[in-house]
Write a structure and sequence with these properties.
Order of helices and strands of chain A: HHEEHHHHHHHHHHHH
Largest sheet of chain B: 5 strands, mixed
Oligomer: heterodimer
Structural class of chain A: mainly alpha
Distance between the termini of chain A: 32 Å
Number of helices of chain A: 14
CATH superfamily of the largest domain in chain A: MetI-like
Number of domains of chain A: 2
Number of domains of chain B: 2
CATH class of the largest domain in chain A: Mainly Alpha
Number of strands of chain A: 2
Shape of chain A: flat
Radius of gyration of chain B: 29 Å
CATH class of the largest domain in chain B: Alpha Beta
Helix content of chain B: 40-55%
């Protein structure tokens, strides 16, 4: 074993710090325990990841090539090759709307609530009077589950009995009209997302060294240019977190459309389609798994981009 | 450069001392260790989790004369009725105890596959129809043929309780018909008559529009209420047998027959409430209650949306005939009841209990506890507690020539929920592309029924 056999280089290095023999002995004594500790620390999480993430993911990919109603043993699975994918791309009407909606969702959440949340955080960072109150008010929706958010907004959006139509005197079918319901839902989701991003960003801003601002002010930099040239670059780690949170939230968006109408009629999202097919009485396990695989592929693109940015940043 | 005797030595030399302690964990042994750890930690955990779940739903059982009863109502009036029935049964059958395992309605419905494949209760609430036969065919429901014949249960209900192999797998308890509801006071005030033919109905609808009423309340946000409209139109235009065959996947959805149904539906849509896809059936029922709409095609559960003191004002008629050769004898009247699991812990007790649940006593116990009767599947049940509406419902079903169970109970549930619901919603949005719509339904049907 390479570890225990002393090497010239190791001895030289060790000798300069402490007694070579005692160091070697100490190393030998801790080896067994260290190995056990590392084995546990690396092994347990790896095992959990493999069991709970990779095996199910692999299973989904595999089941995507099958027809199975989820009843009976594994021998009742019929392997049908690419038929599920062919059906998804050719005769499954909700698929393309779902792709489009997911994309709109991502773009909207990034350009409106995320930027708005950052803007609010910058404002609140200026120690306004009653800042705490605003902060709490903006953050409050975050505490509610998305499902509950969907329900609350349902009360506002109901066509015949909702508050919005009652106040505005309109008869817009907010949740039912497929031309507007996605936007209505995005407002409800954004309402939540703003507070979340605001809090994340505010925490980051509070941590920025005030002397940076002072120095910038001394050098005659204005508010705006200080923010964009000094604060924003310093906040790089937070910016990445906010971006990742936005991406993840957009891809897993599901609960709120599920509460509203189970992801149908203008509110199709890939995650909702997967659930429609797999969970519940339907049990089109193979078809749903094929959809889940498509979703996995799409998310991997974002994950890859994210990893590249993060890893690149660390070099 | 020092000279190394082996690659290992060289590698060890470049690793800092603190890290080299771990280098002995070679890749292979590391993987082995990981897998072992996985086996030791992951699997038992998963198994324990599964076991826990099943234990939870499985209930106690075993204890001498205990029958477990899985019910799909929790915290509702129906749940109270279940309690009352169980207690009444216990008092009449010395020594048999009933343990209720109540689950919220939708959860029960959505988990039925896992529930039946885990350790289901001896007796559980379910519906007649395709889904029941589907489970029976896969051996997930117990044969209860020897419970039959049940005194007072009509033959049409026995037929609905029979699996594809000719044996009975279901015991009916109650039912509710679908019909066109309206307020008596509105009809009286405006001098409307219940229509007997399609022409009478359309002229009534036109008159209602002149009088400032929406003729038909309509809602399909949840996806299933519109199925009731399709069912009744199909049964009126193409007849009951065609409807059942279509549901079973034996007729084509892009046939001229089905297109005729959508055509008729399209011609009636202008008399329906607009923006149906954002409205729940509760809201539509309230439009009827508020006298904004004149009629509403729904199940009798619609009366929940009326305040108690206004319920006597509700009346209904069966959807009028469209083709005199076919008539108006077929209706949707879903039957609720109970099944026995495939391997009950207490089979004898379960069958005794099933018999009780279909008997007039069950209704009596339920009425005593909640004052609210259900419409008993048993003709001998004491009808004195029935509301006028329920008496009329019983009459309607008694006269019906054929009874369908409702689209999502008469066909494959995956087809109903992933194809039909989006398709009907698409139709309501855009009723003009019937050819494209029916073609798409048929393509998807073939991919689902191929299995």
């Amino acid at each position: 074993m390479s570890v225990t056999s002393p090497t010239p280089a190791g001895r030289v290095r060790k000798d300069t710090t402490e007694g070579g023999a005692s160091a070697r002995r100490r190393r030998r004594r801790t080896t067994g325990l260290d190995r056990a500790v590392v084995a546990v620390m690396v092994g347990v999480p790896t095992a959990l990841v493999i069991l709970l993430v990779w095996l199910p993911a692999f299973g989904s990919v595999l089941l995507g090539f099958a027809r199975w109603e989820g009843i009976g043993g594994l021998d009742t699975i019929q392997w049908i090759g690419l038929e599920n994918y062919r059906n998804i791309f050719t005769i499954y009407p909700p698929f393309y709307p779902a792709l489009q909606n997911n994309l709109i969702w991502l773009l909207f959440i990034f350009f409106v609530p995320t930027l708005l949340g950052i803007f609010l955080a910058v404002l609140l960072d200026r120690e306004l009077r009653g800042g705490r109150l605003y902060q709490t008010a903006f953050f409050l929706p975050v505490v509610l589950s998305l499902a509950l958010t969907g329900f609350i907004w349902q009360l506002l959006y109901s066509r015949d009995q909702g508050l919005v139509n009652a106040i505005a005197g309109t008869e817009i079918d907010w949740y039912g009209n497929p031309d507007v319901n996605l936007w209505a839902i995005l407002v409800a989701t954004g309402w939540k997302h703003v507070g979340y991003v605001m809090l994340l960003y505010l925490a980051g801003l509070k941590a920025v060294d005030p002397s940076l601002r002072e120095a910038a002010a001394m050098d005659g930099s204005g508010e705006v240019s200080t923010f964009f040239r000094i604060i924003l670059p310093v906040m790089a780690p937070i910016n990445i977190i906010v971006l990742v949170v936005t991406f993840i939230d957009s891809l897993r968006a599901f609960d709120i459309v599920w509460v509203v109408n189970k992801g149908r009629n203008g509110l199709e999202l890939i995650a909702a389609l997967v659930t429609q097919n797999v969970v519940g009485e339907a049990s089109r396990i193979g078809f749903g798994s094929a959809l889940a695989t498509i979703m996995l592929l799409i998310s991997s693109v974002f994950v890859a981009v994210y990893l590249k940015v993060v890893m690149g940043g660390q070099k | 450069m020092p000279r190394f005797r082996s690659r290992d030595e060289y590698l060890a030399s470049i690793v800092p001392p603190s890290a080299s302690a771990t280098a002995g964990l070679r890749r292979r042994s590391f993987l082995k260790g990981t897998l072992a750890a996985g086996a030791a930690i992951g699997f038992p955990g998963l198994l324990a989790a599964c076991g826990g779940d099943q234990g939870g739903t499985g209930g106690g059982g075993g204890g001498g004369g205990t029958v477990t009863w899985g019910t799909n109502e929790s915290g509702t009036t129906f749940a109270e009725q279940h309690q009352a029935e169980a207690r009444d049964f216990e008092s009449k059958n010395d020594g048999i105890k009933v343990k209720i395992n109540a689950v919220e309605h939708n959860t029960f419905q959505e988990n039925i596959n896992n529930y039946l494949q885990g350790s289901p209760d001896d007796v559980f609430t379910w519906f007649a129809g395709y889904r029941m036969r589907f489970f029976a065919e896969r051996g997930l429901i117990g044969d209860v043929s020897d419970v039959w014949p049940l005194e007072g249960i009509p033959d049409s209900f026995k037929e609905a309780s029979t699996g594809n192999d000719g044996k009975q797998y279901f015991v009916p308890q109650s039912y509710y018909p679908w019909a066109v509801f309206h307020r008596k006071s509105v009809f009286q005030k405006n001098g409307y008559e219940q229509p007997k033919t399609l022409d009478e109905m359309t002229s009534l609808a036109k008159q209602m529009q002149k009088d400032g009423l929406v003729p038909f309340a309509f809602a399909d946000k949840d996806g299933w209420p519109a199925m009731g409209t399709f069912d009744v139109l199909n049964m009126r235009i193409n007849g009951f047998d065609y409807h059942i065959n279509l549901m079973a996947g034996e007729e084509a959805w892009d046939s001229a027959e089905v297109k005729a149904v959508f055509d008729m539906w399209r011609s009636l849509l202008p008399y329906h409430q607009t923006d149906a896809l954002g409205r729940t059936w509760q809201e539509a029922a309230q439009a009827l209650q508020k006298r904004q709409a004149g009629m509403y095609l729904l199940g009798t559960f619609m009366n929940e949306q009326f305040p108690e003191n206004e319920r006597a004002d509700i009346d209904f008629f069966t959807f009028p005939e469209i083709d005199p050769a076919i008539g108006a004898g077929a209706i949707d009247a879903p039957i609720d009841g109970n099944c026995m699991s495939a391997k009950p812990k207490n089979e004898e007790g379960a069958k005794t209990f099933l018999k009780y649940l279909a008997s007039p006593d069950a209704l009596t116990a339920a009425v005593k506890a909640t004052k609210l009767p259900f419409i008993s599947a048993n003709e001998n049940a004491d009808q004195s507690a029935y509301t006028e509406l329920q008496k009329k419902s019983a009459e309607l079903v008694g006269q019906a020539e054929n009874i369908a169970q409702f689209l999502d109970r008469d066909t494959r549930p995956d087809f109903a929920s992933t194809v039909i619901i989006p398709a009907f919603q698409e139709f309501i949005k855009n009723p003009d592309d019937i050819d494209g719509l029916t073609k798409s339904i048929e393509e998807q049907k073939q991919s689902i029924f191929a299995g």
